[in-house]
Amino acid sequence: MILTRIARMNQLMIANRLRKQIANQVMVQQTALMHGRSLIGSREVVGHGFNETDEIKKLREKEKGDWNKLSLEEKKKLYRHSFCLTLSEVDAPTGEWKIHLSIVMYTVSMALLFFILARKYFYGPLPASMSLEGKQAQRDLEIKYKTNPIFGLASKFDYEKGDWK
């Protein structure tokens, strides 16, 4: 009973996978037709299976023979139909870095804006101990109560003379 359930689950998973693959292929084909992807710029979409015209089929048969018999124009057509981009087109800058830089700059500016607003509206005023007078009073109390007499401020103060060593 358990084995039949497992087998049935496997069949359902395989059927679901096939259904998704077929739906994805149909969607890609419909999208390509809908958006007019038969051209990239001024040239045709390249690669096997797209736009396989009679001319390309004849060139493919001719390609199986001696390549010296092919003209330069025929070789270019075969290359253009077999590969999407030339090496110079692959190496050409795309300008995608501008988008990434703008996203980074936007994120940094939002973080700075949040920081400024948080400092202004969320935090209260600084305590009195952070002012110059407050720090001096704290230092005087440390000397008066002899805190950390070995390594601290009290070790650098001469209590007999009432001055710093």
TrEMBL record:
Gene Ontology molecular function, alphabetical? oxidoreductase activity
Q: Looking at the keywords, is Protein biosynthesis present? A: no
- InterPro entries, per database record: Cyt_c_oxidase_su4, Cyt_c_oxidase_su4_fam, Cyt_c_oxidase_su4_sf
Member of which family?
Belongs to the cytochrome c oxidase IV family.
Q: Where is it localised? A: Mitochondrion inner membrane
Protein known as: Cytochrome c oxidase subunit 4
Give the organism, scientific name.
Blomia tropicalis (Mite)
Transmembrane segment boundaries: 103-122
**Subunit and interaction comment:** Component of the cytochrome c oxidase (complex IV, CIV), a multisubunit enzyme composed of 14 subunits.
GO cellular component, alphabetical, reads: mitochondrial inner membrane; respiratory chain complex IV
General function of this protein: Component of the cytochrome c oxidase, the last enzyme in the mitochondrial electron transport chain which drives oxidative phosphorylation.
Give the pathway annotation: Energy metabolism; oxidative phosphorylation
Does the UniProt entry include the keyword Glycoprotein? no
